[in-house]
Amino acid sequence: MSDFSNEPVEETLAEGEIPFEAAAARLTIDLGAIVSNWKTMRALSGRARTAAVVKADGYGLGIEDVGEALYGAGAADFFVAVPEEGATLRRFAPDARIFVLSGMWPGTEEVFFENDLVPVLASSEQLSFFFAAVAEFGDYPCALQIDTGFNRLGLTVEEALALAGDVSRPASFEPVLILSHLACGDDPASPMNKAQLEWFRIAASAFEGVETSLSASAGIFLGSDYHFDLTRPGIALYGGDSQAGTSKRLRPAATAEARIVQIREARAGTTVSYGATCKLGRDSRLAIAASGYADGYHRSLSGSGVPLRDAVSAGGYGSVAGYKVPIAGRITMDMTVYDVTDVPEGAIRVGDYIELIGPNLPLDEAAAAAGTIGYELLTALGLRYRRRYIQPD
Ligand SMILES: *Cc1c(COP(=O)(O)O)cnc(C)c1O
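^ thats the input. predicted complex w/ pyridoxal-5'-phosphate below
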């Protein structure tokens, strides 16, 4: 038997594609971590079944690969935002139940029916349209969203109770799921949680025997009262905080890196980047890395020269060779400058990669410096990264 282990792995490159080892910006997505996080959330969900929320292209990490990995690991219920996402997911999760959170309206029904997608009906208007659309189609499943205090989507509790008691509704109408969404699940001390829980119990009790679902990632951490029949984790699957600190129990799923294309010596007293807002207090070494705000590396992460620096004192960091290196001056469209003066000479070279988010630079820490949340950083990552997926074991 021959041993091929020393042979370089041949990557098949698409036309115009740069190898992962040479890409300007690159993104490693650990599908094993996503599966492991789903299993962690499943364990925390107790007796409830655990769905997977893969809207917004799997929180920016790729609905096709993420959906396929979770389906392979046993996830049987998925939530997407819009029917197009459901149609994409259907190819990778043939027997799953796929719920579409924004509901159904004229012009979308074909995509629902053709891909066996379950609309989460969010208003009496949508209900009327659904009844008319399925009249000729026959029995078709739907879910009902009930608003218990978010004022976003859903029937009011009164509307839900009226619907449950309405004898004129089509006889075949039987929702497969009743759901609601918490406004303050990230704050266990908020009285909103208990109030929404009580309203949800009242609404759900009018639909006896129908499955119930209240909690996204944060709600799962609120404990078993909040789990009902089905939980709906999203951000937790991707390793992000839903309640402060909860990501410590999860594995980071995405590592974004940018290549150092130049290292330059700069004299004390000179300035860095647009607006000359960063004046160097010492002779410095600067690493220029090939990603910027066009890669979702938000300009608000800049070390200086953006209004946020008055409110959130520290700017963003990168991580390289075990050192946290501050962003110097303003982030530009395609480039970011890091102050690497404190990294020993020889520890970094042109061609090395600076980690933007990942195991050494938690998503939520980067998000805080940008004045935002991990959800927004992930979903903003953009298409310019060269992507590599690590398959689950
Ligand atoms: C986005 C969303 C989720 C998932 O939320 P996370 O905080 O990412 O876990 C669950 N339910 C609804 C209705 C949502 O809109």
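The CA atoms of residues 298 and 370 lie 7 Å apart.
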